[in-house]
Amino acid sequence: MANSNYEYVKSFEVEDRLMPSTWIVVRIDGCHFHRFSEDHEFDKPNDERALNLMNSCAMAMLEEFPDIVFAYGVSDEYSFILKKTSQLYERRASKILSLTVSFFSSVYGFMWKEFFPNKKLKYPPYFDGRVVCYPSAKILQDYLAWRQVDCHINNQYNTCFWALVKSGKSKMEAHNLLKGTQTQEKNELLFQQFSINYNTLPAMFRKGSCVFKDKTSVQEVSLVLDPLTTGKGRRYCEVQRGW
Amino acid sequence: MANSNYEYVKSFEVEDRLMPSTWIVVRIDGCHFHRFSEDHEFDKPNDERALNLMNSCAMAMLEEFPDIVFAYGVSDEYSFILKKTSQLYERRASKILSLTVSFFSSVYGFMWKEFFPNKKLKYPPYFDGRVVCYPSAKILQDYLAWRQVDCHINNQYNTCFWALVKSGKSKMEAHNLLKGTQTQEKNELLFQQFSINYNTLPAMFRKGSCVFKDKTSVQEVSLVLDPLTTGKGRRYCEVQRGW
Amino acid sequence: MANSNYEYVKSFEVEDRLMPSTWIVVRIDGCHFHRFSEDHEFDKPNDERALNLMNSCAMAMLEEFPDIVFAYGVSDEYSFILKKTSQLYERRASKILSLTVSFFSSVYGFMWKEFFPNKKLKYPPYFDGRVVCYPSAKILQDYLAWRQVDCHINNQYNTCFWALVKSGKSKMEAHNLLKGTQTQEKNELLFQQFSINYNTLPAMFRKGSCVFKDKTSVQEVSLVLDPLTTGKGRRYCEVQRGW
Amino acid sequence: MANSNYEYVKSFEVEDRLMPSTWIVVRIDGCHFHRFSEDHEFDKPNDERALNLMNSCAMAMLEEFPDIVFAYGVSDEYSFILKKTSQLYERRASKILSLTVSFFSSVYGFMWKEFFPNKKLKYPPYFDGRVVCYPSAKILQDYLAWRQVDCHINNQYNTCFWALVKSGKSKMEAHNLLKGTQTQEKNELLFQQFSINYNTLPAMFRKGSCVFKDKTSVQEVSLVLDPLTTGKGRRYCEVQRGW
């Protein structure tokens, strides 16, 4: 009953090392979170508790995987940047992807009650993930800018949408009213109809959240991250977790 | 602030479709579970509650991902077989890997208290995963045989090891006594010193656990699975979960 | 001046082993051969010398790379099938692809004068190539059928097209006359206007060419190849080359 | 006989795009060239005609594939660097690899008689190839330095080896005399026993050959290539070919 007769099946495993000397980004994204947020009655358009839970998961990630130098999150999505020189799991994509997504998912459930003390988790939430490599700091910046512009566009739309819905419009009506509107028009709609000054809404809603490991790593990655994280949008969090 | 300037960063994402018409196997494996099992005082050599928790996670997997036709688990490891024709997420490896591992991890924490009602989860458990494709039923069988032989070898060793330790040997002494012994010798040691007939120990410990979706899918995959699952080792579980 | 300081650059090379136990197909295809065939005044619609040169290159391939069990060619394209168990260059895709395409290209120029004794090669012809793996004999058959149907469709069209052009039509007129015609109509056009019975044209034009290494390998692969190569279309060539 | 029934076989082709914004290097290497150089009686340790044939092939490559900005060759090996922004064949690795290797091989045979007018090509030479991407100019420099140091080490060894053999030593004796010697010792051996000042041997033998497309592209890539190509080792060749 020696195992050696069957070990040839290991030869079907594929080597999947990521290109050395490139920035590794793991992006994690909630699966079916539209439904999940409804089933758990998240505040609309933003649930501060849910965002802080995501931020806490991200902080736990930086503690568990020291090669992560920075994380950027928005809504039910978080991007984790591993340093260019990382040798985490010999840069094997499957290992990095599966372990980070698994850990994040597990922490989310584990910390749920801390952020939603009066709301029972109805079923297990889960996330998809992907790994992408970027060969230069400039392109990594553009990646982060891409996610942050997405945050802005979605948040501004959702802020208008839910203001309209809360004011009595149907979802369909709200959708139709917003179709084709530009940034400026949306801001005016918010201001004129709802007395909301978009630019004074919480930065975490408008700009997303950042997590750095510590002051030193901020210095190291400042070239990459400055454009994103200076100014009001910056949410600086030193990790101090410990279960 | 149009997003289109940055969208080029998506071109760095790699297409990772798995070869069509091959069996997709996702193998999930506990990370740092040696420590985790000690920190949570699992019974040794096998903790029935922990195994049943793993089995419950596997059953939830079959329900969530209908393309999984069969699962085989041993210790803190589970293999999930997707049917050859599966088009789950267009067979994209990252999607399949991240979602299955994330869901499994999340379910593990979610169902913990059902199996360990008196034991608090001290920190979030997590798992690694990998995806491997097999081009024929014969090789898939050999894959399953490989895992099952591994189960046998490890379990027999662990049964002897913990019997010796519980009888007063140190772990080092137990290890040294077992070094180089063959299957037959281990069985005799168990029988003569501890009156344990190895072959009468629970099949779940000796042979691992199987999960099928339903009787129909067993028929469909019988060609593949028969050698593994006929006879005493077979643990047949119809999924009937619902959160 | 030790080389070891620079050897890290090898870590950027990517492992590209092809899945074990699958049929490896290398398809080679003439690059810019439309122009090449005009510049070298190939007969239209088929140049027997050019096809026989391709066949000779294929025969040389089977001799140079013994793992090739079968080859199928049409026009300026040739598919080479390596046996499922091949360990050629440890199944590294780049090695297999580059060496086979390079050898084929080199032989093409080397043997040119044998098939075109009175025509000087005006510039170096070259080919692209790709490697594809197929997990089953059934799918490999379908691959070959795909190429053979393509051969039929193209050859029938070209036979009509050049008959019309040689009869005085412009290329544009010929093209327009054929647009939307079905197989049966094309056969009737050939027969009624040009007294050509399509089915009596040389099998090599209508069905393509096959190369087997020897009678034994035909037996071995008969399951795969029978549907393609039985009957009139079969061109059986034992390799007897030697430079 | 519609082809659409079989077209699913195309789904087995694998997408193999190279990472954007990285330098693409194609390295081509003679296959069985030890034997080939003996069968064609190349001068030892360096055959100027053979090197110039390789250089001519490289020049033809730069003309045929305009995205190649630079090439570096030594012995029967040549590296071609495509610019970072190249979109050649949508950066598909198989296309780039197969077409470049095929073209190079074809040119080698095509131009043979120009460099060896009195020596018939006995059989078709061929080459292997690989594609590697480098994310930064610095690492690309190190790649080129790696090849150039290799050139130096091999050439110095071969110069000593063949001097010894031509002086009457057997190949085994020559090999044993050189075993373990350092650079300085080899230079002294050459100078004292054979009155050869290694540093005055032709730069092409000691340093390899470079090909640039034109003066402009030299400017563009100067950051990358300067360390390699300044000084005596530089062989600057403007391409002026045309069949």
Give the oligomer, counting copies of the same chain as homo and different chains as hetero.
homotetramer
> How is the CATH topology of chain A named?
Alpha-Beta Plaits
- The average pLDDT of chain A is 89
- Care to count the β-strands of chain A? 5
Span of the ends, CA to CA of chain A? 43 Å
Q: If you had to describe this structure to a student in words, what would you say it looks like?
A:
The structure is a homotetramer of 243-residue chains. The first copy, chain A, has 243 residues and is α+β, with helices and mostly antiparallel strands. Chain A has one domain: tRNA(His) guanylyltransferase (Thg1) (Alpha-Beta Plaits, 2-Layer Sandwich), CATH 3.30.70.3000. In chain A, strands 4-1-3-2-5 form a five-stranded antiparallel beta sheet, with helices on both faces. In chain A, helix 4 crosses helix 5, helix 4 runs parallel beside helix 6 and helix 4 crosses helix 8. The longest helix of chain A has 30 residues.
Show the helix and strand layout.
Four copies of one chain form a homotetramer.
Chain A (H helix, E strand, L loop, with lengths): L22 E9 L1 H7 L8 H17 L3 E7 L2 E6 L10 H23 L10 E9 L2 H30 L4 H8 L4 H12 L8 H5 L1 E4 L2 H15 L14
Antiparallel strand pairs in A: 1-3, 1-4, 2-3, 2-5
What are the salient characteristics of this protein?
243 residues; 5 strands; homotetramer; disordered C terminus; Alpha-Beta Plaits; alpha+beta; 5-stranded antiparallel beta sheet
